[in-house]
Design a protein that fits this description.
Oligomer: single chain
Structural class: alpha/beta
Strand content: 15-25%
CATH class: Alpha Beta
Radius of gyration: 16 Å
Distance between the termini: 10 Å
CATH architecture: Alpha-Beta Barrel
CATH topology: TIM Barrel
Mean pLDDT: 96
Helix content: 40-55%
């Protein structure tokens, strides 16, 4: 399982400092939506250049103009770009086209998708690489991702599955049995007193 670090509420210099602490345990570096809203593609470009052996994901959450917007992120150095699973098929197709042109990948965020299994199958048929079960920040106190992850994993297989939303050292053990390809952790690493130790511990659990 790959460990993806979500960098959301920091600037580029803060992100680089965090990464220098934990990069050895991280497989995918996510430039989160708040960072992109605040700083555009600058952190994607800088982090891609600073860590050329890592896969950088731009969490663009594309809802429209799929090819055009995905191309912007790929051009900046992203290897993976996110689209929303609930958007139009035409938007998905456009993002997938940009990914193929740039030898990149597309991750579909399944927030607010109701017919999860059916939509996951459709998205794979459209060329999406990963289906991400994502418990939104605003509802993490009341919703759990694990039932949905189980359904997605049974539908598309572990190699196409990802999970995000409130994952920490204390909850990552619940993820392991499903063996998703990507496990996304944000505050569970960045918000901890010892970020390096937190990243190391979570990575060790994923590698068991």
């Amino acid at each position: 399982m790959k460990l993806q670090l979500a960098l959301d509420t920091c600037d580029t210099n803060e992100a680089l400092a965090i990464l220098h602490d934990v990069a050895e345990y991280i497989d995918v570096i996510e430039v989160g939506t708040p960072m992109i809203i605040d700083y555009g593609m600058e952190p994607v470009r800088i982090i891609s250049q600073a860590f050329p052996t890592k896969s950088v994901l731009a969490d663009t959450k594309i809802m429209d103009a799929g090819e055009f917007e995905a191309e912007i992120a790929f051009k900046a150095g992203a290897k993976v770009v996110t689209v929303m699973g609930i958007t139009h098929d035409e938007t998905i197709k456009g993002a997938v086209k940009a990914a193929k042109n740039r030898n990149g990948r597309i991750l579909a965020d399944m927030m607010c998708v109701q017919n999860v299994e059916e939509r996951a199958k459709e998205l794979l048929e459209l060329g999406v690489d990963y289906i991400c079960v994502h418990t939104a920040f605003d509802v993490q106190d009341t919703q759990s991702p694990f039932d949905t992850l189980s359904r997605v994993q049974r539908t598309v297989g572990s190699q196409h599955s990802a999970i995000a939303g409130g994952i920490t050292i204390h909850s990552v053990g619940k993820v392991v049995p499903f063996q998703p390809e990507i496990v996304i952790v944000g505050n569970g690493i960045t918000g901890q007193k010892d970020r390096k130790e937190s990243a190391k511990h979570i990575k060790q659990l994923l590698d068991l």
